[in-house]
Amino acid sequence: QAVPAGSHVRLNLQTGDREAKLPDSENGGSDTREERRRRLGKVDVDSNSFTSQELKKALAKMKESEKAERKAHEEEVRKKFRPIEQLKEEFEKLNVKMETDYEIMVKLISKFNSSASTLDEKVAALYDLEYYVHQV
């Protein structure tokens, strides 16, 4: 059930029901229907009065605003951070090799499976692998 903005909502712990109430106006009495309609815009607050078209329009507006907010957030993140491919290229220019956790784990597994590795190297590879797997 949709609840109008500004309503008081509570959970009745004895019955487990959620209850909602429109707030009282400043003069102590509850708002009249006209005052509520003026405050809430052109939306009628009676649950039986919403048509399917009104609900579809409201949902479409919500989706549009959500998409706009998501795009704005993505643009904000893009301004703050650079793609990993660009970072790898810049590190290569500085002669610094940047490895991802996945690449490191593949090397550790190959070191563990290698017959040329000593027992101490295999144990060290397992300890290091445990650290990276724990992060994942």
Automatic annotation (TrEMBL):
<dbReference type="GO" id="GO:0015031">
    <property type="term" value="P:protein transport"/>
</dbReference>
<feature type="compositionally biased region" description="Basic and acidic residues">
    <location>
        <begin position="31"/>
        <end position="42"/>
    </location>
</feature>
<feature type="coiled-coil region">
    <location>
        <begin position="55"/>
        <end position="104"/>
    </location>
</feature>
<keyword id="KW-0256">Endoplasmic reticulum</keyword>
<keyword id="KW-0813">Transport</keyword>
<protein>
    <submittedName>
        <fullName>SIL1 factor</fullName>
    </submittedName>
</protein>
<keyword id="KW-0653">Protein transport</keyword>
<feature type="region of interest" description="Disordered">
    <location>
        <begin position="1"/>
        <end position="42"/>
    </location>
</feature>
<dbReference type="GO" id="GO:0005783">
    <property type="term" value="C:endoplasmic reticulum"/>
</dbReference>
<keyword id="KW-0175">Coiled coil</keyword>
<dbReference type="GO" id="GO:0000774">
    <property type="term" value="F:adenyl-nucleotide exchange factor activity"/>
</dbReference>
<dbReference type="InterPro" id="IPR050693">
    <property type="entry name" value="Hsp70_NEF-Inhibitors"/>
</dbReference>
